[in-house]
Amino acid sequence: MLLLKEGNKLDSAYIKEIISKRVAKEFKDGDVVNLGIGLPTMVANYVSKDIDVVFQSENGIIGIGPSAEKGQEVKNLVNAGGVPITLMPGAAFFDSADSFGIIRGGHVDATVLGALQVDEKGNLANWMIPGKKVPGMGGAMDLVVGAKKVIVAMTHTANGSIKILKECDLPLTAKEQVNLIVTEMAVMEVTKEGLVLKEINPKYTIEQVQSLTEAKLTIPEELEVMKI
Amino acid sequence: MKKIKTIEEALECAKDNMSIMIGGFLGVGTPEALIDGLIEKEVKNLTIISNDTAFLNVGVGKLIEKKVVKKLLVSHIGTNPETGRQMNSGEIEVELIPQGTLAERIRAVGAGLGGFLTHTGIGTLVEEGKQKIEIDAKEYILELPIKADIALVYGSKIDKKGNIYYDKAARNFNPLMASAADIVIAEAEEIVEVGEINLNDVMTPGIFIDAIVKGGK
Question: How far is B103 from chain A (nearest CA, A)?
Fold first, then answer.
C-alpha cells in the first residue's frame, strides 16, 4: 500500500475535476469528439472557450451542448447515456448506421472513455467483468477502433487496486488502440516501447506513481508538471 | 393499399418463437404501444433484436419483465438490472454485439448485402467463431446480416402511405430496422395526410412499411 506524502490525499470531486481539465487540453479547434458515459462527460465543461469542439453522441447527434437543466428537458433529446441534453448551433441528427459510419470511418478526432484496466500495449478492458458485471460494450468497441485518438480518463487505481497493467486480464474492448491515459496522478502516453510518463501531478512523486502502476513507466528527461 | 390498422390487427402476424426487431435507444424512439400490444397478446419465446433493454417498465424492458424473451441480440444491457439477472440465471440468452456492428448487420439485410467487414472487435471475444479477412495488412471480421420476422418501429409523424419523419434523436435504429424484416409495423406519434410531411423531410420512404398504428404521445 502506498504511503502518500502527508496531506496529498485528494477528494473524489477534485480528482474528477483535474482529470477532466487535463483531458480537455488535448482538443484542437474544429475537433469532433465523443465522450463516454460517466467521468468523461465532465470533460466538456473544461474545453477552452477559444476553440470550437463538436461533440458527437452515438445515438445519432452531432453538436450536443451541456445537460438540460431540470424542467428544461426536451422530448427525444438525450445523450448516449440517456441524460437530457441541449444542442449547440449547427447540431444535426442522423440514424445509427450513419452515426457509426462517422465513428468507424475515422471522422471522430478523439474519444474519451473510462477503463476497468488498460495496459502498456494500449489494450483496453471496459465492458465486462465475467460472472460479475456484464453491461455490454455499447458503442465503445467501435469508438476505440475508429477514433483517431483514444484517451482513457480514469482514477489511477480503483480503491487502491491497480488498473494500469503490463497486460489486461479482463476481456478486451479493443487491442492496442489507447493513445493516452490521464489520471489524477499523471499523464501517460502509450508508445511502441510501452508507457511514457509525460506529466506528473506535483502532489505526487515519480515513485508513488510507479508504485501504483504495474506497467513500467519510462521517465523522460523533460518530465512536465501536469497541465491543470 | 390501406396501411392504417389497429394495434391488434397489425400484430395478428406476431406468433410465439418469432424474431422481432424493436427500434429505439434507451426508450427514445421506441414503439411503446406496439410493445404493450405484444404483451397483451401474450406471445412468448421471442428473439428480440434491439440496441438495449432500456429500463424497467420502459421499451424492451417491459418484455424482459414479462419474461417473454428467450434470446436477445443487443449492444448494451447495463441500464436494466432485470436483464442481467435473467442472463445470469440462464433464463435468457444474450448475444452482446458492438453497437456499430449491430446497426450495420441490420442495415446489411435491408441493403441486400451478404455481410460486411469491420475492424471492430478484433482481438476481443467478439471475433470468436467468426471468419477473419485481411485486406491491405489490416484484419477485419466478416459480420453477417441479422434479419427478423417482424420489425416494430416508431415515427414522430407518419403519413398514410407510411412515409416517416423522426424527431431529433428518435431516429436511431428505426430506419435500419424498417428495411430488415419480413413485416414492418410503424407506430406513429401522429398520423398525417400524405403531403403533410415535406417530401424532403421523409426519412424512411413508405414502401418499407406494411402497417401503421397510432401510438401515444
Answer: 5
CB A156 within 8 A of CB A215: no
Of 3.40.1710.10, 2.120.10.30, 3.30.1060.10, 3.40.1080.10, the CATH number of A12-225 is 3.40.1080.10
Lowest-pLDDT range of A38-42, A77-81, A92-96, A199-203: A38-42
CB contact under 8 A, B169 and A60: yes
Best mutation target among B171, B204, B217 (most A Cβ atoms within 10 Å) is B171
Looking at the structure of chain B, the number of domains it has is 1
Instruction: Identify whether B29 is part of a domain.
Output: yes
User: pLDDT tens-digit profile of B115-135?
Assistant: 999 999 999 999 999 999 999
Question: ipTM > 0.90?
Answer: yes
Q: How far, in Å, are A82, A130, B32, B159, B162 from residue B2 at the CA level? A: 36, 50, 23, 12, 10
Q: Residue A81 belongs to what H/E stretch?
A: none
Confidence band, pLDDT 50/70/90 cuts, at residue A5:
very low
- C-alpha cell of B113? 448485402
Question: CATH number for the domain including B56?
Answer: 3.40.1080.10
The stretch B160-171 carries a mean pLDDT of 98
Rounded CA-CA distance A77/A106 in Å is 25
> Widest CA span of chain B, in angstroms?
54
Contact A175, A136 (CB under 8 A): no
For residue B156, list chain A residues with Cβ-Cβ distance below 8 A: 76
How many residues make up chain A in this entry? 228
Closest to A215 (Cα-Cα) out of A151, A123, A120, A115? A120
Q: Considering the domain boundaries, does residue B156 fall inside one?
A: yes
**Integer angstrom CA distances of residue B23 from A58, A59, B51, B138:** 15, 12, 8, 33
pLDDT band at A81 (very low <50, low <70, confident <90, very high): very high
Q: How much is the pLDDT for A160? A: 85
What's the 3-state SS for A157-221? EECCEECEECCCCCCCCECCCCCEEECCCEEEEEECCEEEEEEECCCCCHHHHHHCCCCCEECCC
Cβ atoms within 10 Å, residue A193: 9
pLDDT mean over A64-87? 95
Answer yes or no: do A76 and B167 touch at CB < 8 A. Answer: yes
Assigned C-alpha cell, B211? 402497417
Per-chain mean pLDDT for chain A: 94
Nearest-Cα distance to chain B for A178, in Å, is: 14
Which structural domain range is residue B157 located in? 16-111+146-214
In a domain, B189, yes or no: yes
